C-alpha cells in the first residue's frame, strides 16, 4: 500500500531532529503549524505549512514555498529563502537551495563550504563531513579546516578518541567491493593500519572485536583490541564457543557448544572477561542476559531469574519470572512475578510493586514510567505513573514521546489527535477535530513515491513474480481515446480524491492498438511517474520509483486491446507555477524474446504549482516490516 508522509500527528512524533530548547511547543490546527507556551496559550499562530521544534532559540518553518527561521515571537530572524532547512545545532543549520546543501550560522552566513553534503558533530568544534562523492573526513568548525582529510568511505562515531574507518577496494576476482577497516584517533593518526584485520566491530566498553586469518595456517581468528590498538587476546575459531560481539562492564556473553549425541549439539550461555578467561560456564543456567549498570540477570533451570554483580555474586533474595528488555537501564529494571510487572532497583528491591499488565521497555525516564493495557482493537493504550507508583495519566494514550516530559510537558496522541499534558496530568492543549472533511491540494516539499498500480491476469512468462491490485482493466465502450495508439491522458476536467482527503485528477491508460500490450511492473506498480518543468524549463521527476530487493516483486502486467486502466494523481500545490506531465516506460521484447526495448509514453501537459524541494528531496523510506522488500 502506498504511504505518503504528511504533516500530521505521525510526523509530529517522527520529526524530532533536535531537542526542544525553550518553552514553545509545536502544535497543529487545520493542518497548519503554530506554537504554544507551557500553559497552552498560543504564542505563534498556526500559519505554517511546515514547522520544526524550537532549537537554540530558533525554529525552521515554511509558510509558503520557502523555509526561514523564526524566533520565539514569531519574527523572521533569517528570511524565508531556502528550499529546505533544518534546525540549528551547535550554532549551525543545514539548508538547501536547488538541491545543494549549505551550512549557515544564526546570521544566515554560510560557515562551511558547500562542497560538503552532510555534517555529524563529534563535539562542538569537530564534525564528520561528507563530500559529493561520499568521502568522509573530519572538519574543525572553528578554523573551517580539515583535521582529517576526506579520504575514507566511512567513519564511525568517535569513542574514547578513536573511530573505525573503511576504504572500499575491488575484490581480487573483481566481483564485489571489500570494505577494508582501520582505526584512527581524533587527529587522523592510524592506530590500527589497513589490512591488519578483515573486520573490526564498533568499540564498546573500550574494546572492539576483530576478525582476521593466520597468514601461515589460514586459520580464522577472533580477538579484541583496546583503543590503543593492542590485541588483548585472540582465539582460533573451532566452533567450541562463539565469542561476544561486545562487552559491558568488562564482561561479555558467549555461546558454548554442548554435545548432545554423536550427531547433535546445542549452545548454552556463558560469560567471558576482557582477558579471554571464561568466568561462568554452567549448564544449569538456561539463559544469561548482558551486563548493564553492573548487574545481569541469569535464568536458572527452575526458570527463575536472579540478579548477579560483575563478580557473579547473587544480589538480593528475590527471583523474577520475566524481564522486560535486556535488563537494567539507568539503574532500574522492569520485571514480572509471572502475573504482573513492576520496577526494581539495582539491589533487587521493588520501587514500583508488580501490579501492571505491561510496562514500556524504555523504563524510567525523568522519574516517570509508561504502563499499558490492551484495548478492544488489540492495540496498546498507555498511561503514565511516577516512580512512586502514583498514576499521572490514565491509560488512554495511543502514542507518546519516548523522551518523556520536556520542560514539564509530554507530547502524546489520543484517537490520532495531538495532545499535550503537564506533569500534573492536565491537558494543556489538544488538537481539535475538524467537523467536516476538507479536500485540499497536496502541498509537500519532497519527491512523492510511485503509486500507479494496476491488475491483470498473471502472465504465463513470469517465473515467480506476481502482484495484486483492485485496479482491474475496463472495456472501452463509449469512452473516447486516440485510435490505434497507447494513450496516457490526465483528465484535468475530471477531479477525484486520493490519499483520503486530497484533490486529484483522473488518469487513463488505454490500448487501442491491434494487440495486447505488456508492461513491466513491480508489485503491481507501473513504471509511471509525474514530472514537472524546473525554472530552466527542463523536465524533471517529482516522483520516484522504488527498487525492491526481492525478485518476486518484478512481473508483467498485460493490457488487452480495447481496454483501459483508470488511475488518480494528486493535484500538487506550491509557490512555483509550472507544467506537469506523466511519464510511462514500457519494456517490450521482440518476437524471439531476445532483446528488450524501452518505449517512453508521455501524457498531455497540464498546469499547476509545486515546491522546489519536490525536484530533489527524496525522503528516507522505512520498511513496514520484515516482509517489506523496499529499503531505499
TrEMBL record:
Q: Name one Pfam family in it.
A: WG_beta_rep
PANTHER family in UniProt:
DUF3298 DOMAIN-CONTAINING PROTEIN, GLR2918 PROTEIN
Name of the featured protein: WG repeat protein
Amino acid at each position: 500500500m502506498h504511504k505518503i508522509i504528511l504533516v500530521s500527528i505521525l510526523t509530529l512524533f517522527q520529526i524530532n531532529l533536535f531537542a526542544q530548547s525553550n518553552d514553545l511547543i509545536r502544535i497543529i490546527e487545520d493542518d497548519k503549524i503554530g506554537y504554544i507556551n507551557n500553559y497552552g496559550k498560543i504564542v505563534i499562530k498556526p500559519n505554517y505549512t511546515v514547522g520544526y521544534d524550537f532549537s537554540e532559540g530558533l525554529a525552521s518553518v515554511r509558510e509558503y514555498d520557502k523555509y526561514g527561521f523564526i524566533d520565539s515571537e514569531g519574527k523572521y530572524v533569517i528570511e524565508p529563502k531556502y528550499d529546505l532547512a533544518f534546525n540549528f545545532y551547535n550554532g549551525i543549520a543545514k539548508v538547501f537551495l536547488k538541491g545543494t546543501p549549505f551550512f549557515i550560522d544564526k546570521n544566515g552566513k554560510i560557515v562551511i563550504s558547500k562542497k560538503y553534503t552532510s555534517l555529524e558533530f563529534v563535539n562542538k568544534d569537530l564534525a564528520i563531513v561528507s563530500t559529493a562523492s561520499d568521502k568522509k573526513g573530519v572538519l574543525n568548525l572553528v578554523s573551517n579546516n580539515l583535521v582529517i582529510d576526506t579520504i575514507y568511505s566511512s567513519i564511525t562515531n568517535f569513542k574514547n578518541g578513536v573511530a573505525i574507518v573503511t576504504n572500499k577496494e575491488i575484490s581480487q576476482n573483481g566481483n564485489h567491493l571489500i570494505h577494508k577497516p582501520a582505526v584512527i584517533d581524533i587527529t587522523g593518526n592510524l592506530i590500527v593500519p589497513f589490512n591488519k584485520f578483515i573486520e573490526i566491530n564498533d568499540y564498546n566498553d573500550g574494546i572492539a572485536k576483530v576478525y582476521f586469518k593466520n597468514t601461515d595456517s589460514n586459520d580464522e581468528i577472533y580477538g579484541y583490541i583496546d583503543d590503543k590498538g593492542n590485541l588483548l587476546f585472540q582465539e582460533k575459531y573451532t566452533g567450541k564457543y562463539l565469542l561476544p560481539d561486545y562487552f559491558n562492564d568488562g564482561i561479555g556473553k558467549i555461546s558454548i557448544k554442548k554435545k548432545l549425541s554423536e550427531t547433535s549439539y546445542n549452545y548454552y550461555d556463558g560469560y567471558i572477561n576482557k582477558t579471554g578467561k571464561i568466568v561462568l560456564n554452567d549448564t544449569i543456567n538456561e539463559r544469561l542476559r548482558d551486563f548493564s549498570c553492573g548487574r545481569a540477570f541469569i535464568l536458572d533451570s527452575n526458570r527463575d531469574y536472579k540478579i548477579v554483580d560483575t563478580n557473579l555474586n547473587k544480589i538480593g533474595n528475590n527471583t523474577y519470572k520475566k524481564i522486560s528488555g535486556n535488563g537494567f537501564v539507568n539503574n532500574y529494571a522492569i520485571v514480572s512475578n509471572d502475573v504482573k510487572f513492576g520496577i526494581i532497583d539495582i539491589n533487587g528491591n521493588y520501587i514500583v510493586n508488580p501490579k501492571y499488565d505491561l510496562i514500556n521497555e524504555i523504563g524510567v525516564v525523568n522519574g516517570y514510567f509508561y504502563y499499558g493495557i490492551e484495548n478492544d482493537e488489540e492495540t496498546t493504550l498507555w498511561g503514565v505513573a511516577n516512580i512512586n507508583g502514583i498514576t499521572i495519566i490514565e491509560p488512554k494514550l495511543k502514542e507518546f514521546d519516548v523522551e518523556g516530559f520536556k520542560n514539564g510537558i509530554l507530547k502524546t496522541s489520543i484517537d490520532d489527535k495531538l495532545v499535550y499534558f503537564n506533569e500534573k496530568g492536565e491537558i494543556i492543549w489538544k488538537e481539535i477535530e475538524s467537523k467536516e472533511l476538507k479536500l485540499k491540494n497536496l502541498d509537500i516539499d519532497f519527491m512523492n513515491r510511485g503509486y500507479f498500480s494496476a491488475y491483470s491476469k498473471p502472465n504465463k512468462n513470469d517465473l515467480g513474480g506476481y502482484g495484486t491490485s483492485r485496479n482491474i482493466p475496463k472495456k472501452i465502450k463509449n469512452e473516447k481515446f486516440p485510435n490505434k495508439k497507447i494513450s496516457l491522458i490526465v483528465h484535468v476536467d475530471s477531479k477525484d480524491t486520493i490519499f483520503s482527503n486530497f484533490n486529484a485528477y483522473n488518469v487513463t491508460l488505454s490500448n487501442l492498438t491491434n494487440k495486447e500490450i505488456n508492461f513491466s511492473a513491480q508489485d503491481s506498480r507501473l513504471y509511471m511517474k509525474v514530472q514537472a518543468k524546473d525554472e530552466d524549463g527542463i523536465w524533471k521527476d517529482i516522483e520516484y520509483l522504488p527498487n525492491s530487493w526481492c525478485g518476486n516483486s518484478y512481473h508483467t502486467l498485460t493490457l488487452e486491446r480495447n481496454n483501459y486502466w483508470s488511475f488518480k494523481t494528486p493535484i500538487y500545490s506550491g509557490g512555483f507555477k509550472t507544467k506537469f506531465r506523466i511519464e510511462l516506460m514500457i519494456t517490450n521484447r521482440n518476437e524471439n524474446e531476445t532483446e528488450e526495448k524501452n518505449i517512453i509514453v508521455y501524457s498531455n501537459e497540464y498546469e499547476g504549482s509545486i515546491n522546489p524541494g519536490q525536484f530533489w528531496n527524496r525522503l528516507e523510506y522505512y520498511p513496514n516490516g520484515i516482509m517489506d522488500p523496499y529499503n531505499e
